[in-house]
Amino acid sequence: MKFLVFVTLMLVTLVNAKDWWENGNFYQVYPRSFRDSDGDGIGDLNGVTEKLEYLKDIGFTGIWLSPIFKSPMVDFGYDISDFYAIHPEYGTMEDFKNLIKRAKEVGIRVILDFVPNHTSDECEWFQKSVNRTEGYEDFYVWHNGKVDANGQRQPPSNWKSAFRYSAWEWNEQRQQYYLHQFSIKQADLNFRNPLVVAKMKEVMRYWLDMGISGFRIDALPFMFEKGPDENGNFPDEPVINDVSICPDPDDWCYLNHTYTQNQPESIEMVYQWRELTEAYKKEHGGGTRLLLTEAYTTFDNLMLYYGDGIRNGSMIPFNFYFMQNILKNSTATEIKDNILRWMNSIPQDVLANWVLGNHDNPRYSTRLGEGRMDLFTILLQTLPGNAVTYYGEEIGMVNGKVTWEETVDTQGCSSSPQTYESYSRDPERTPYQWDASSNAGFTEGDHTWLPVAANYKESNALSQSRAPRSHLQLFKTLIRLRQEPSMQDGPLEIKSILDDILIYSRQLPNSDMYVIVLNLSNSTQTFNVNDHFKIGSKAEVICSSLQSKHVEGQVIDATKFEAEPEVGVVLVNIN
Questions:
Q1: What EC number(s) are associated with this protein in UniProt (predicted)?
Q2: For position 6, what pLDDT does the model report?
Q3: How far is CA 431 from CA 29, 37, 194, 399, 456, in A?
Q4: pLDDT in tens, 280-321
Q5: What is the mean pLDDT of residues 13-36?
Q6: 12, 341 in Cβ contact below 8 A?
Q7: CA-atom Rg of the chain in angstroms
Q8: Which one of the listed residues 218, 237, 409, 566 is annotated catalytic?
Q9: Are 240 and 255 spatial neighbours (Cβ–Cβ below 8 Å)?
Q10: In this structure, what are the phi and psi dihedrals at residue 428, rounded to the nearest 5 degrees?
């Protein structure tokens, strides 16, 4: 009988065994801002390697490195000139191999940023295409352009760059326009050319051979654009209906991007890349290679990035629906509906994912309110599935102040001293705050590539690691909590109390019940938790926002629970 019980337990364990990435927490490292090991003011690979144990100690499953490839750095690595080389400011190929080796020793996975839409105009491929070298003639999107009534040459269409102005640039040598949906220095690859598709798959295999565990894939909605008509012309895109929202004709938002965004072939390409990674696993072993995908697109398209019911796609199509629809004034009901729409729409046998920040958006601590940053950290880390953490979120970093003179982001520099703050992404990219020493311990040098945020002496990793209560200690508690059976596999039951309080539970049968209470309002509200979830008359506090009077380990009266303003609390039943 004991043997049968043992076998049964083993079978249950095997059935419930998870792949390495499932229910994980993935940490975006922006290498330029993470840790500078050589004193030049720019973060580098050896700096990342130095801090791998810190990240593993927190409990991260894997790190995603923003681009580290050779680049002129017009868009800080998203303009790649050599897909097979490390950018010298970040180190050498030997440094990268050492990082991979150390990551395996520590037990943390490494994921690379893959930028398929475009290359730098300094890339060898582009130069060959300019010269019409055999095999590279149509590697990029080229066009003769139009001639207007006055005999003047004009771009092929009205398409706009995401960084403003025309998406077409004349190349004098080739005597044609090339498409660039980002900066002039970022030429769009022509994915309708099978040679381009094959070349980018070759790039993927090269880095998989280096021992990485997957890719985060950049800017997918831009990858395909509508092809030319029978006369070889590209169609103009329509102007938005309400130009008061975006009155500047030079701005990307002035047009509806019906021909340059969200073409179905972009999703199909993700399915091909999933097939590539699965075939690689069969050939080489070593576990699943993960695909995370970036697409600011429609909700329905985000669902298709998971798969179409026949073919599989991205394991983690970033949930930008969540990020873009949680605003400073969002109500508990709106957030609940946002979460439930995702949970109820994802295909079977995939995992939800939750993301609130990255290198292209203001930090959620700044965007949603510094007093509520712990509340949203608790939300992000207690929902089912995978969580994505942008560097510094674990210590509550806020946007730094970057003046016009200090601005280096191409998106900000393309604007003006009057408007740059609406465009620049520099404030969310300021150096990591390691300690209270000069330049926040980011560098031993005397300068940093972006200014360090002003609050680094009060808010940094070292001081928070030593404090009994801090953003970092809260984050570590939440990561440990995520390993509990009910938090791994317990279904989500979620409600809103009026528009102020979000309350939800996670519980497996015969396991602990966790109830999370998030008070979005600015007033204390007292209620019986059991009116919503049967947690019992007493409950224990697992963790809470720093300003809360409810502290870890405290036993509270769940029948008269005081939900404090702008505070999140995690409770567990007392058996």
A1: 3.2.1.20
A2: 41
A3: 11, 13, 41, 11, 10
A4: 999 999 999 999 999 999 999 999 999 999 999 999 999 999
A5: 89
A6: no
A7: 25
A8: 218
A9: yes
A10: -90, 5
Q: What is the pLDDT of residue 17?
A: 86
Among residues 95, 121, 294, 500, which one is catalytic?
Answer: 294
Note whether 370 and 398 are within 8 A (CB).
Answer: yes
Which segments within 122-252 are labelled E, that is strand? Answer: 142-143, 146-147, 153-154, 168-171, 176-179, 186-188, 214-217
List the beta bridge partners of residue 82. 70
Crossing angle for the helix pair 264-284 and 194-209, to the nearest 10 degrees:
40
Model's pTM, two decimal places? Answer: 0.95
**HSE, side-chain direction, 13 A CA sphere, residue 229:** 8
* Domains contained in the chain, CATH given: 118-188+226-259 (3.90.400.10), 488-573 (2.60.40.1180)
* CA neighbor of 164 nearest in space, from 507, 410, 475: 410
Q: State the average pLDDT over residues 422-437.
A: 97
pLDDT at 562 over 70: yes
* Residue 75 known to be catalytic: no
Longest dimension (CA), the chain: 93
Count of CB atoms situated within 10 Å of the CB of 247: 10
Cα–Cα distance for residue pair 194/136, rounded to 1 Å:
11
pLDDT mean over 474-495: 98
**229 part of the active site:** no
